[in-house]
């Protein structure tokens, strides 16, 4: 029952209750019914009016909605037209831009290509440097066999050096080790190359089969890569990292340099180049080497020679520099000076070799040795200064060698004199000789007294 | 002269010599080949003389040994030698 029907019902019941009291009068019943229908009629009209009002409101609202829709529709149409205009306008701009780009590219194509190549080259070099390539040498001792069969002719004088036996031995050992290592690497290289060639062929086939699905192709190639051995996978990863334009030799160099680098880092067997560079190679002018006198002493004389404290200079400069103890770094200047005085004293004692040096020579020796020791600290002297010190040190060595040779000459003269004495006295009666010598002794004793 | 790395060379005066090749390598800085060799000659103090030449293979297959005149290259070669001696 809706609200209006309920109201109508209540009105009728109320009237009926009121009329019950006056039930007995027909006129009153007629009046009540008349009122009832009047009420129903009024209610009906009220409802109709209400419905009419509602319909009118709905119609208005519908009209508003229509207006809104129309307005929206118009706006939409207008917007689309603007958009269409904008797109057309932009498309025109793009065409112009493309034309400009094409012109620029055509005009500067070579320049752009060159710069791109330079950039690629720099990037490649950086990658190679990072990978440790280009350090120093690619030794191929096996090529000596190749040299044996060739006509080899010197067109210019070679650069010559004097090195110690120790240095040469180390040198040869290194070469021998390198040769072994190269042989091992040749085997490794062969194995990897075979595996990678097979992988490359497979990758090419996958690319061809999946040319419309590059992502699938990449995924399948990656799966194949993961099936490779660890060494071959490392190689492929490194090759991909180095990018295009890198030669196969550069890739192999990078691959093995990477291994070297890891070995060096693990073993700490090598020193930085800066430190190594400070170790001097004994370099002497060729002329000096050729004119260096060789003192040959007869074996007999050597055996008969008195025991002399003749220092030999067999120790290489490199060895000596390394063996030199580093100077203590004293914060106290006085202590440092005392230390230097002690060091100078030590250097002076090195000259107690039986030969008389001038004060100038002694000073020169001390200065050279001190400079050498201080340079071994490697903190205050530049490389040029260290080289200069090494030269001074070498000069000192040469002087010492000259002194030794001079002394040996004197010894040879004494021995020659002794030989002559032996020759001259061999026919003299030993008793007479003994008496003469005894007389000399007695005479000397007498003079002493 | 002993050793398997002995080769014959004609020196600048036209004399034939046997030398022992210590090493033969390419220098990374310029891509040229160099050879370090010795006649095993020693001086009065027992030091051994070694020689270094640039190795140039000619089109006819012969090989020329040139000197090392560039100071930068020579400096690099010394580094190589020291590095080799240290890298034992």
Description:
The complex is a heterodimer of chains A (449) and B (88). Chain A has helices at 3-21, 26-130, 143-148, 165-209, 214-226, 230-242, 248-267, 273-277, 286-291, 299-304, 317-323, 333-350, 359-377, 383-425, 430-448; strands at 137-139, 152-154, 159-163. Chain A is an all-alpha fold. The radius of gyration of chain A is 56 Å and the shape is elongated. The termini of chain A are far apart. In chain A, 10% of the residues are buried. Mean pLDDT of chain A is 64; it is low at 19-24, 129-142, 264-301, 303-337 and 439-449. In chain B, strands 1-2-3-4-5 form a 5-stranded antiparallel beta sheet, with no helix packed on it. The mean pLDDT of chain B is 84. Chains A and B meet through β1, α3, β2, β3 and α4 of A and β1, β2, β3, β4 and β5 of B.
Q: What's the structural blueprint in terms of helices and strands?
A:
The complex is a heterodimer of chains A (449) and B (88).
Chain A: H1 3-21, H2 26-130, E1 137-139, H3 143-148, E2 152-154, E3 159-163, H4 165-209, H5 214-226, H6 230-242, H7 248-267, H8 273-277, H9 286-291, H10 299-304, H11 317-323, H12 333-350, H13 359-377, H14 383-425, H15 430-448
Helix pairs in contact in A: 1-2, 4-5, 4-6, 6-7, 12-13, 13-14
Chain B: E1 6-10, E2 16-27, E3 33-42, E4 48-57, E5 63-66, H1 71-86
Antiparallel strand pairs in B: 1-2, 2-3, 3-4, 4-5
What are the main properties of this structure?
heterodimer; A: 449 residues; mainly alpha; 3 domains; 15 helices; 3 strands; 77% helix; elongated; B: 88 residues; alpha+beta; five-stranded antiparallel sheet; 1 helix; globular
């Amino acid at each position: 029952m809706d609200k209006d029907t309920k109201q109508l019902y209540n009105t009728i019941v109320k009237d009926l209750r009121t009329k019950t009291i006056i039930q007995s009068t027909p006129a009153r019943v007629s009046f009540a019914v008349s009122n009832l229908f009047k009420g129903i009629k009024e209610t009906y009209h009220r409802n109709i009016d209400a419905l009419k009002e509602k319909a009118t409101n709905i119609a208005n609202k519908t009209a508003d909605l229509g207006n809104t829709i129309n307005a929206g529709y118009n706006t939409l149409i207008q917007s689309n037209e603007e958009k269409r205009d904008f797109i057309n306008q932009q498309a025109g701009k793009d065409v112009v831009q493309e034309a400009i780009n094409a012109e620029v590219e055509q005009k500067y194509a070579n320049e752009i290509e060159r710069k791109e190549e330079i950039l690629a080259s720099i990037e490649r070099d950086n990658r190679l440097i990072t990978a440790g390539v280009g350090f120093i040498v690619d030794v191929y001792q096996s090529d000596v066999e190749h040299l044996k069969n060739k006509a080899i002719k010197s067109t210019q004088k070679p650069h010559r050096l004097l090195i110690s036996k120790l240095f040469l031995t180390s040198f040869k050992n290194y070469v021998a080790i390198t040769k072994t290592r190269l042989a091992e690497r040749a085997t490794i290289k062969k194995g990897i190359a075979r595996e990678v060639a097979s992988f490359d062929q497979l990758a090419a086939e996958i690319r061809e089969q999946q040319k419309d699905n590059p992502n699938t192709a990449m995924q399948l190639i990656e799966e194949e890569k993961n099936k490779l051995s660890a060494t071959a996978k490392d190689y492929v990863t490194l090759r991909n990292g180095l990018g295009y334009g890198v030669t196969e030799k550069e890739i192999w160099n990078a691959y093995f340099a990477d291994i070297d680098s890891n070995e060096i880092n693990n073993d700490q067997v090598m020193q930085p180049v800066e430190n190594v560079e400070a170790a001097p190679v004994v370099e002497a002018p060729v002329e000096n080497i050729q004119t260096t006198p060789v003192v040959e002493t007869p074996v007999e004389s050597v055996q008969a020679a008195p025991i002399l404290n003749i220092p030999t200079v067999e120790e290489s400069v490199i060895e000596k520099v390394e063996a030199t103890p580093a100077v203590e770094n004293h914060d106290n200047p006085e202590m440092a000076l005392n230390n230097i005085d002690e060091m100078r004293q030590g250097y002076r004692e090195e000259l107690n070799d039986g030969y008389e040096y001038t004060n100038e020579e002694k000073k020169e020796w001390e200065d050279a040795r001190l400079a050498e020791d201080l340079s071994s600290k490697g903190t205050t002297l530049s490389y040029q200064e260290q080289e200069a010190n090494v030269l001074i040190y070498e000069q000192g060595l040469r002087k010492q060698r000259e002194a030794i040779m001079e002394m040996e000459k004197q010894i040879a003269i004494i021995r020659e004199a002794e030989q002559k004495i032996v020759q001259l006295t061999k026919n003299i009666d030993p008793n007479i000789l003994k008496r003469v010598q005894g007389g000399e002794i007695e005479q000397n004793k007498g003079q002493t007294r | 002269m002993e050793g398997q790395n002995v080769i014959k060379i004609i020196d600048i005066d036209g004399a034939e010599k046997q030398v022992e090749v210590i090493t033969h390598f390419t220098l990374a800085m310029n891509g040229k080949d160099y050879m370090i060799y010795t006649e095993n000659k020693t001086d009065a103090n027992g030091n051994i003389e070694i020689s270094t030449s640039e190795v140039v293979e000619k089109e006819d297959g012969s090989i020329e040994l040139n000197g090392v005149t560039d100071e930068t290259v020579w400096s690099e070669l010394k580094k190589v030698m020291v590095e080799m001696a240290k890298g034992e």
